[in-house]
């Protein structure tokens, strides 16, 4: 009687009605908009923080491009290609935007990643294979100045940047950039104290702090953390200066004339003028093309600042879903966490069309300032959630594909027990069409994708963050009598779809299984190494 009454409750009746509607829609997939949807795309972050500083990374990437293509990668995000302040710098310590490893500056001609010629060779090969390249643009600051200058500045409270905690005094700051190795090639712009609003070091007194240069103000259209989060590090560019704006705008056009880029990642977008960012994006889309992809890094564990920033930017770009990573990290480390809430208050839940989803990146990996560890045993679940569902643009991390160079405990060991390529291939082969969620148990959730015209097979995914479990899920009457197997091979049994289109799909403890028709093509994973 209790069971019968429960189905009479309004919420249960509505849920049952929705399940019936999905069954009916699945019977007529060719009439649903998802039936003709384009192929899924996939982004790969093609580096991690501790890639060897051997100036060989552009060559490594060029060599493995065919392997990337084989596992379904459509676009690679490469690290900052411009000259850093030292030969081993990853490029976030940006020195010269216009030096892509071409000029003898800061102790080397090549960057940590390689020479300009090797970068161009990588880009050309990627273009031949149909793989796009997104370059990382570090536009907030400059580092490794060529000389110091003296100027008056005030010290501000690091926790409240609008609060001055000293009187104006003369300091000596690293703000002079004349690029002696490059000279006037590509740009004649030289930088000095007039082009920066703040520094973090007084050379004369050998003293650190956040110093606002007299005659300059922090940008108003930045994050409000610490009162005003314009200043981040090194010499902070002042985008109220027309010479700075013009030089960086010209660089955006210039780098696309040097490399066949498909898009850019904008670093640290909450730390510099949103108004300038809109101008920069507008220039790129006018000069390169209207479909030029832009994704910003706005690091915040809560979703509201991400939504506010997107609105401020008139939705001209996508954002990495840092709120989702915060949830993945916390849920992965909490025993018995409720999986049904895993997408609550994330960008992919609220504005999926602008969400680039990810599990880890160079900033969240162990030892980094934004470390947000996702427990290793949970990573296969996390990747299944971003790769196989119908919302968001997923990005796979190089460090999860190959392992982390600096992981002393388990060096160069891929995440997901080496099954990440299988999951990326599953995205390309099966994760299409209408989606039905079975988020009905706290520690065991599942979902079904029903396929489309070009990829009619579909899939059933089930995961548990507790003990072994199983779930009865509807995959469609057209699959009746088919035998389905787990492409991850973590469940060895076979599931036979019944005449009503349902299967009883199992999953092992603390695991994920992805079930497809055993006869479907392309179910084997690729194994490859650099």
UniProtKB/TrEMBL annotation:
Keywords: Carbohydrate metabolism, Glycosidase, Hydrolase, Metal-binding. One of its GO terms (biological process) is carbohydrate metabolic process. Residues 41-427 form the Glycosyl hydrolase family 13 catalytic domain. The keyword Acyltransferase does not apply. It holds the Pfam family Alpha-amy_C_pro. Its cofactor is Ca(2+). InterPro entries: A-amylase_thermo, Alpha-amylase_C_pro, GH, GH13_cat_dom, Glyco_hydro_b. GO terms for molecular function: calcium ion binding; hydrolase activity, hydrolyzing O-glycosyl compounds. It comes from the Eukaryota. The keyword Transcription does not apply. Belongs to the glycosyl hydrolase 13 family. PANTHER family: ALPHA-AMYLASE. This is Alpha-amylase.
């Amino acid at each position: 009687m209790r069971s019968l009454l429960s189905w009479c409750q309004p919420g249960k009746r509505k849920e049952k009605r929705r399940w019936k509607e999905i069954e009916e829609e699945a019977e007529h997939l060719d009439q649903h908009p998802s039936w003709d949807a384009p192929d899924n795309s996939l982004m790969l972050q093609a580096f991690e923080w501790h890639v060897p500083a051997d100036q060989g990374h552009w060559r490594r990437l060029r060599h493995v491009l065919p392997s990337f293509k084989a596992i379904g990668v459509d676009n690679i995000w490469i690290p900052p290609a411009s000259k850093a302040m030292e030969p081993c710098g990853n490029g976030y310590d940006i020195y010269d935007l216009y030096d892509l490893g071409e000029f003898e500056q800061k102790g080397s001609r090549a960057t940590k990643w390689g020479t300009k010629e090797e970068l161009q060779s990588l880009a050309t090969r990627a273009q031949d294979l149909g793989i796009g390249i997104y370059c990382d643009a570090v536009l907030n600051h400059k580092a490794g100045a060529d000389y110091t200058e003296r100027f008056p500045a005030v010290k501000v409270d690091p926790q409240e940047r609008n609060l001055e905690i000293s009187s104006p005094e003369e300091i000596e700051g690293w703000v002079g950039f004349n690029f002696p190795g490059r000279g006037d090639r590509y740009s004649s712009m030289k930088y000095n104290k007039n082009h920066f609003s703040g520094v973090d070091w007084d050379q004369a007194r050998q003293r650190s702090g956040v110093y606002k240069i007299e005659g300059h103000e922090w940008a108003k259209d930045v994050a409000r953390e610490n009162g005003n989060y314009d200043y981040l590090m090194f010499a902070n560019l002042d985008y109220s200066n027309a010479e700075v704006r013009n030089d960086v705008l010209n660089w955006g056009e210039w780098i696309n004339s040097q490399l066949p880029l498909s898009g850019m990642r904008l670093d640290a977008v909450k730390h510099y003028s949103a108004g300038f960012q809109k101008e920069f994006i507008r220039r790129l889309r006018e000069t390169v093309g209207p479909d030029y992809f832009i994704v910003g890094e706005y690091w915040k564990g809560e979703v509201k600042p991400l939504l506010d920033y997107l609105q401020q930017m008139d939705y001209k770009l996508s954002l990495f879903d840092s709120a989702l990573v915060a949830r993945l990290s916390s849920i992965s480390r909490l025993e018995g966490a409720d999986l049904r809430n895993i997408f609550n208050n994330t960008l992919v839940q609220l504005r999926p069309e602008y969400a680039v989803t990810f599990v880890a990146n160079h900033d969240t990996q162990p030892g980094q300032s934004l470390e947000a560890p996702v427990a290793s045993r949970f990573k296969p679940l996390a990747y299944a959630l971003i790769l196989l569902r119908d919302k968001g643009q997923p990005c796979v991390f190089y460090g999860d594909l190959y392992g982390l160079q600096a992981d002393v405990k388990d060096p160069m060991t891929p995440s997901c027990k080496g099954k990440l390529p299988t999951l990326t291939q599953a995205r390309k082969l099966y994760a299409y069409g209408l989606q039905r969620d079975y988020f009905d148990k706290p520690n065991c959730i599942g979902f079904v994708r029903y396929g489309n015209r070009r990829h009619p097979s579909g899939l059933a995914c089930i995961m548990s963050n507790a003990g072994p479990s199983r779930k009865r899920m509807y995959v469609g009457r057209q699959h009746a009598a088919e035998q389905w197997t787990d492409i991850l091979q973590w469940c060895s049994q076979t599931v036979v779809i019944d005449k009503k289109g349902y299967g009883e799909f199992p999953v092992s403890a603390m695991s994920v299984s992805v079930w497809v028709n055993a006869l479907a093509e392309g179910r084997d994973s690729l194994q490859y190494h650099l």
